[in-house]
TrEMBL record:
Organism annotation: Actinoplanes digitatis
Enzyme class: transferase
Name of protein: Alpha-1,6-mannosyltransferase
Source species, domain of life: Bacteria
Domain (Glycosyltransferase subfamily 4-like N-terminal): residue spans on this chain: 15-174
Keyword annotations from UniProtKB, A to Z: Glycosyltransferase, Transferase
Entry GO MF terms: hexosyltransferase activity
InterPro entries tied to this protein: Glyco_trans_1 (IPR001296), Glyco_trans_4-like_N (IPR028098), Glycosyltransferase_grp1 (IPR050194)
EC id: 2.4.1.-
Residue stretches making up the Glycosyl transferase family domain: 196-347
Length: 370
């Protein structure tokens, strides 16, 4: 089968979406299918990779979005799609690329839309909030425009369940259990970032408004106010980085900003070495970085408003509010003697092979494995 995938908002410094696209494409190729990914970029390119063929089309940048680009030329993009003659189409953007589902229907090609964002959640974050009726209408159009809608958690699927959409399936994402492992613990890295006796906290994610990174600073401040020595390492870039760096300095908080960590092995070391990973984003539909932390044996404190409580299970704690409650959750986790074993066991429930099989099933393709 020729599976053509298309996504916006993907850059060299992207996090979970870029990882998911790579792992799924590689899985499709390993299962004997021909995978092609279309993404926006500064210039056109066409290369073969482990995830299959990757076609980059020139696209304008989005102001204030830290380098993200969007495929705006529908005619050119549609021409590329026609030339690829896909058997299946997979869309990884539910807003700017919803038109691809309609194109696929006219072309007689089954399409899958992967709901990486929650329209419900985003409408709550960025005001004025849209009414539930507006959100429901938009979701109904999204479901109608595609053969199948894939949601990675029950939390993400809830807004489609509410409107009675019948073409929604749930398929969790996965984690590389070899790369992200407790064996990646790095004593030298720990000495570099934390003094003996300090708690080492890690915030891993894009520094943008919807991720609520300030909650991690607030958690650190609450720990210090309680007399608990702790440091925070921030792995991720984004438009809020300058403001957060200034705020951390003004508040006298020991925060180390690493920017985007491009090396996946270095990231695995960070995740396995931290005492606790903070995942404060309130509209995460899955939380891949948090799952990678669990695979490294590190428990997670997550936003109670997101899908993450569903993913982390007993290997973490869901905290409400803007940060102070995260501090108590950190202390509660540190009091659990089996926290690292529990974290790893939870992650082992999410191998990428199962995700690939689930996505292929959503495409109506039965995976053949020896």
């Amino acid at each position: 089968m020729r599976i053509v995938r298309i996504a916006n908002f993907v850059t060299e410094s992207s996090g979970g979406l870029r990882t998911a696209l790579h792992e799924l494409g590689a899985g499709y190729e390993a299962a004997g299918h021909e995978a092609t990914l279309i993404v926006p970029g500064a210039r056109r390119s066409d290369v073969r990779t482990a995830q299959g063929r990757v076609i980059t089309l020139p696209a304008p940048g989005v102001p204030g979005m830290g380098g993200y680009r969007v495929l705006m030329d529908r005619r050119r993009t549609a021409a590329v799609l026609r030339g690829l003659a896909p058997d299946r189409i997979e869309v990884s953007d539910r807003t700017t690329l919803r038109w691809v589902g309609r194109w696929a229907r006219r072309a007689g090609v089954p399409s899958v839309m992967v709901s990486h964002e929650s329209l419900d959640g985003l409408s709550r974050l960025f005001g004025p909030a849209a009414s539930r009726r507006v959100v429901d209408r938009a979701n109904a159009r999204t479901a109608a425009d595609h053969t199948t809608v894939v949601c990675t958690t029950g939390w993400a699927a809830a807004e489609f369940t509410r409107i009675g959409a019948r073409n929604v399936v749930r398929v969790p994402l996965g984690v590389d259990l070899d790369r992200f492992s407790p064996s990646r613990f790095d004593a030298g890295m720990r000495r570099r970032w934390a003094a003996p006796g300090d708690l080492l906290l890690l915030h891993c994610g894009r520094l943008s408004a919807e991720k609520r990174p300030r909650r991690s600073l607030n958690a650190l401040a609450a720990l210090h106010a309680a007399g608990v020595p702790a440091v925070l390492v921030v792995a991720g870039g984004g438009p809020l980085r300058p403001a957060l760096q200034g705020e951390a300095a003004d508040r006298g908080l020991p925060v180390r900003f690493l920017g985007h960590v491009r090396d996946r092995d270095e990231l695995a070391g960070l995740l396995a070495t931290a005492d606790v990973v903070l995942a404060p984003g309130p509209v995460e539909t899955f939380g891949l970085a948090a799952l990678e932390a669990l695979a490294g044996g590190t428990p997670v404190v997550a936003s109670a408003d997101s899908a993450l409580p569903e993913v982390i299970g007993a290997a973490g704690i869901a905290a409400p509010g803007e940060g102070p409650a995260y501090a108590q959750a950190v202390l509660d986790l540190m009091g659990r003697p089996e926290r690292r074993r529990t974290a790893r066991e939870q992650a082992c429930r999410y191998p990428w092979a199962a995700s690939v099989d689930g996505f292929l099933a959503a495409h109506g393709i039965v995976a053949a494995r020896c």
